[in-house]
Amino acid sequence: MTEAWGPDDDEPRKLAGPVRVRVPAKINLHLGVGPLRPDGFHELNTVYHAISLFDELTARQGDTLALTMEGEGAGTLALDESNLIIRAARALAAQTRVPAHARLHLRKSIPLAAGLAGGSADAAATLIACDLLWGTGLSRDELAEIGAELGSDVPFLLHGGTALGTGHGEAISPILARPTTWHWVLALAGGGLSTPEVYAKLDALRDSPFPPKAVAGADELMSALRQRDPAVLGAALGNDLQPAAIALRPELTAVLEAGAAAGAVTGLVSGSGPTCVFLATDANHAERVAAALNEAGVCREAVTARGPMPGARMT
Known about the structure:
Elements: E1 2-4, E2 13-15, E3 19-36, E4 42-60, E5 65-71, H1 84-96, E6 102-108, H2 118-134, H3 140-148, H4 154-159, E7 162-166, E8 171-174, E9 182-188, H5 195-206, H6 219-227, H7 230-236, E10 238-239, H8 242-248, H9 252-261, E11 266-269, E12 276-280, H10 283-296, E13 301-307, E14 313-314
Parallel strand pairs: 3-10, 5-6
Antiparallel strand pairs: 1-2, 3-4, 3-14, 4-6, 4-7, 7-8, 9-12, 9-13, 11-12
């Protein structure tokens, strides 16, 4: 038996056997990108939305820190000190002054470099799992402070739901809209895009003679969420990184066109891409749009998802 404090718990709880944590992917319903800051980050104003595509991390007691994995990216994703899972475990251990000893296993369903924050999701899962495994007793907000040093999306994925992100995306304010389930179709690409390359391309496009038009502020999007109408929400979605992602991967235009032809409410590139996300009116509509995209052959696979989902949680 392992006795540990769970995040947001008032009393310690005893955990039998391994600790398993499931964490969702995210999409950006709104992503406004400001100029490059002196610290190397861009100022962001974004609305995060956690969706029902999950990675699962299992943590067991160990004499060293070791990581194994299966699923998306197996054989491709490095499992050494560069991996965000290892970095998250070491950051928590350093903060709480405990030995960084754990056997970690990742079951990965979120594609790599897809604009869905898969690496940040895995870091969030690691912080929760190792906190419980080691009994370090940090609150979710304290874990988010550690996570912010690992990736801008990590604090959101610890909390989940739908939230406004500011700063470089790490400052999270939950959006308390009426309970509504939104239905999505994800067009997964055959390869990834480097987030730094997409941001660099956006900077270059903005310095060109014909810069892309910036998206409006997030107020319209947040108002649309409260109206619970897919048509209203669809009209408010926007992503400043979309022109840069398309410039690097021109075939994304065909994906967006195929989604429109399939009857999606609207579509956009997710985050830094190359995943394209389409809004549907309901679950059945989402299934029809996904089937049409798969038949069109414009992406590796089209899958359905719903949101919002809670953040990293034990299973």
